[in-house]
């Protein structure tokens, strides 16, 4: 999300993919999860939800989780809302492996789908993801 509270390009990619999967009937609901950074009034979930509705997602199919500030919290807070149902986690391609492992701690049945990240963004993102995998591993979050 940018400083004006609008969805970033990455958030738009993930949201559009989630809406596309819903439109294909692959999920009865779409949980949009994401809190806000300090100093920001709007949450990532609120920005993405507005975008999803503009793309045609039904408000009845929308579940907003606006507390999470990490992949771990995305999984934990989503599980609190949904219970033990099969889930499809929509994220960026480079993040699928870690997201899937984390979500499997909270849900019995997890599939992951990744939005394609443009190459310039992917280079930095993959480096960051390697650091996060190490951190999550050391903290026992897998």
In words, what does this structure look like?
By secondary structure, this protein is of the alpha/beta class. The chain has one domain: Rossmann fold (3-Layer(aba) Sandwich), CATH 3.40.50. The chain has five helices and four strands, in the order αβαβαβαβα. The strands form two sheets. Strands 1-2 form a two-stranded parallel sheet. It has a two-stranded parallel ribbon with strand order 3-4.
Note poorly predicted spans: none
Order of helices and strands: HEHEHEHEH
- CATH topology description: Rossmann fold
The tally of beta strands, per DSSP, is 4
Question: Mean of residue pLDDT?
Answer: 91
In angstroms, what is the radius of gyration?
14 Å
Which CATH C-level class is it?
Alpha Beta
Strand order of the largest sheet: 1-2
- How many structural domains are formed by the residues? 1
In short:
The chain has a single domain (about 10-140), classed as HUPs (Rossmann fold, 3-Layer(aba) Sandwich). The chain is about 45% helix and about 15% strand. It has helices at about 10-25, 45-55, 70-80, 95-105, 120-140; strands at about 30-35, 60-65, 85-90, 110-115.
Quickly list its features:
142 residues, alpha/beta, Rossmann fold, two-stranded parallel ribbon, globular
Secondary-structure blueprint:
Layout: H1 9-23, E1 30-33, H2 44-54, E2 62-65, H3 71-82, E3 87-92, H4 96-103, E4 110-115, H5 119-138
Parallel strand pairs: 1-2, 3-4
Helix pairs in contact: 1-2, 3-4
């Amino acid at each position: 999300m940018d400083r004006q509270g609008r969805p970033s390009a990455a958030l738009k990619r993930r949201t559009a993919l989630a809406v596309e999967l819903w439109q294909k009937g692959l999920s009865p609901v779409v949980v949009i999860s994401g809190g806000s950074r300090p100093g920001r009034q709007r949450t990532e979930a609120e920005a993405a939800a507005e975008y999803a509705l503009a793309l045609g997602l039904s408000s009845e199919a929308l579940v907003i989780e606006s507390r999470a500030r990490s992949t771990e919290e995305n999984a934990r807070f989503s599980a609190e809302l949904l219970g033990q149902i099969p889930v499809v986690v929509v994220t960026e391609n480079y993040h699928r492996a870690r997201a899937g492992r984390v979500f499997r701690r909270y849900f019995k049945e997890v599939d992951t789908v990744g939005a394609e990240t443009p190459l310039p963004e992917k280079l930095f993102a993959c480096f960051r993801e390697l650091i996060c995998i190490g951190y999550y591993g050391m903290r026992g979050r897998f």
